Amino acid sequence: MYNIERVKIKEEWADRSGCEPNWVLDSEISKREIVKALRTMKSNKSPGLHGIPVDFFKMFQANFTDPLYTLFNQVMILEEVPSHWAHAIIVPLYKGKGRKSDPNNYRGVALLNTVGIRFATIINNRLRKWCEERELLDPAQAGFKANSST
């Protein structure tokens, strides 16, 4: 799947910069990672910008795995995400208390591209594992850490 020339360029750059390529972070995204990212999607959530319900992705994950495998690894090779993954619609959501006429009683919720979120989930899982293996996270860091609370 990986373009051999691209890998050689990365290796040459790493040699010049003094950095070693990181095969944990830069390796091909596996179908197992994609299936895990699809399975961990929370049901009954907003469908995002494209209007496809999360449950649809979960129900038909077998149909999505191969196309996402190709897409995600192409993104890794090109080192560029599709521009529409960065688009969002911000929707005001009432907090459930106070006057509805007061804008301070609302919080913004971003509707994003579900496929882009799954890609980000995979990259986040890899980064988290990489940081934990190297003990780079402060023990006091609890936010956005698995099995931790703030």
Task: Summarize the topology.
Blueprint: H1 4-17, H2 23-26, H3 31-39, H4 54-59, H5 61-78, E1 89-94, E2 106-111, H6 114-133
- The total count of strands amounts to 2
Q: What is the averaged pLDDT score?
A: 83
Query: What is the total number of structural domains?
Result: 1
Structural class: mainly alpha
Number of helices: 6
Question: What value does the Rg take, in angstroms?
Answer: 19 Å
Strand content: 5-15%
Write down the secondary-structure element order: HHHHHEEH
In helices, the fraction of residues equals 40-55%
Task: Label the overall shape.
Answer: globular
Terminal residue distance: 41 Å
Name the strands of the widest sheet in spatial order.
1-2
Largest sheet: 2 strands, antiparallel
Low-pLDDT runs: none
Write a structural description.
- The chain is mainly alpha-helical.
- It has one domain (about 5-135).
- The protein contains six helices and two strands.
- The chain has helices spanning about 5-15, 25, 30-40, 55-60, 60-80, 115-135; strands at about 90-95, 105-110.
- The protein has a two-stranded antiparallel ribbon.
- Helix 3 crosses helix 5 (about 60-80) and helix 3 crosses helix 6 (about 115-135).
- The chain is globular, with a radius of gyration of 19 Å.
